[in-house]
Amino acid sequence: MAELTKKNRKADEADFLISQSTLTSLTVLKGSGPSDAEIGLAKCSGNTEQQWFHDGNNLLWGGNRSYCLIPNYSNNTVTLGDTASPAGWIHDEKSRFVTEGGNKAMDVPWEEPRTRVILYSLHDGTNQKWWTLSELEAKLDGALPAQYPVSAKDETTYRQEMARTISNWLAPPDAPLPYKRDVETFPGLVSLDAPRITRNLVLDLSVLGQTRDFRMTIPKDWQATNLYVPPDEMVEVILPESLTSERAAQIQVRVSAHTDNLQPTSPNVKDKEFKRMPMVSETFDLAPGANKIRSQFGGHLIFTFSEGENFLVDIEVRKVVEAPYFKLGETTKEQWAEELKKGAPYTLLETDLVISVVATSDAQNITDPDKLMDRYNEIIGMLNYAAGFDETEQPPRGKFWLVNDKQITAGSAHAGFPAMFDRTYYNMGSENTPYDWVSWHELGHNYQQIPYWGGAYGTESTVNLYSLYNQRQLFDEDRLEKQGDYNRAADHVDAGMTFAEADVWEQLVFLMEIKFAFPDKDWEMFRQLRKNTRALSEEDAKALASDRQKQYDHVYKNLSKIVGSDLINTYNRWSLKISQEAQDEIAALGLPKAPGDLSHRTNKDVFDCGEPALDKFRAEQ
What was the pLDDT predicted at 559? Predict the structure, then answer.
């Protein structure tokens, strides 16, 4: 184990402790001493609250070096203590800050917003790994700027890149950038000939957050602009001097929607390569008056808002460039042709429901942007309906962001906000992409009620209830039918396969068999299930999310009530256990029991639900 003192760090020179999993800096968030200090994480800014001075195995706080960082075993946190009774740390060979007792380490919990720091038993996760800026800077001595791609196994170059990123953050925005970056590879350069302009904007914080817990991944409060921040150039964001500091603190600038932070352990990087710089999106806090910001990477200028007061505010932005931009219902084809002449490397297309970020080189090939964005609107409208939203219950407010990137953390696309799509596989500027299974699938993940029942019945299975709905509406097709999954699953269940043993397609068949067995309910049964799940009280939802058996019961009870038949026999057929309590609840309703075999066998693209037991059951109803 190594002492904290670094060879390249002078005793009176401040250091910074950086979480490898968040790339944020250990800081005193609030307070000024042991009695009131709150230790957590914030963006690396270089202020005294983030500064730490090495003194053997002790870390003295830059805000007051008579205090040092100590473990608080009473509540498993870290805090400030008097240096007269120090409790030191060992920065071990696995990059953890371990208590001198050797049984706990500083840990960053995974729950958003990931600003907490706790003590936790030792493990090898990245959320217990820390860099000091001094050790990162030591890697830069004589190193040439990285050019991509870079091997994922080249740990030295990766650490050098992290050192460049963080050192650039700490540099004043109006001083020369300490380290150049390979922006040309990604996200791209902005022409020096592109006019740097001043623009007046209105930021709309009149409505923030959501009216309720929608129990899904909801759009965040992001306000797009058609402005682009050139890399390595200072821009100014001018807020009114009269704006209160509390209101200003609700506003943040994000430069670039390419939010995936790549690490050597990321599935798309591990044992392969970094195709671009590990992170290219940056955020900046604002204060009343003039705010100077500089992005080392460049990107679209986006304003993000946190909940608080509701208001509109006029602002001014200086030294930015215009990026190609399309707004459905506003931008004409003639205007679009002019937009494409603007020199930013990425283009933004916007509707009332969705924002798509595509490479400008791809946007050059969009001849009918109205048709493209109409299609994105169309599929989101279908997903809203499949989720159970309609005129009686509106979907969450806000717009989904769909972003093309050179390299994402995992898969060829992934859900979340923003939803990310690898440009190598899916061009968001293609008219075919909105109608591709991948779009319904990834956006479907955002609508899933995973903690409440979607995960229990298969995360990668239940998401495709949305995909199948969209496919049926758009093309009158059924992927399970084409793949022969209905017949295959029925044969496997006949042979004794259990639900737990089924693959993702067969688990989806289980739910689809119920749908086909009750055609009068059709997709409505899943719409109502989702509505009922959203209608649960917070207490009931929390209890449901904490108990997998309750999740199996939840779907069984809801679908049985919706279709008007006890589905216990088909659950038994698939060896999907339902609690006796749930069975008794449905039995008390006096519902007829549906047959166990609801197999939906298909033959030559013709649906055939002709199981004798099911036909007899229907005839008797």
Answer: 98
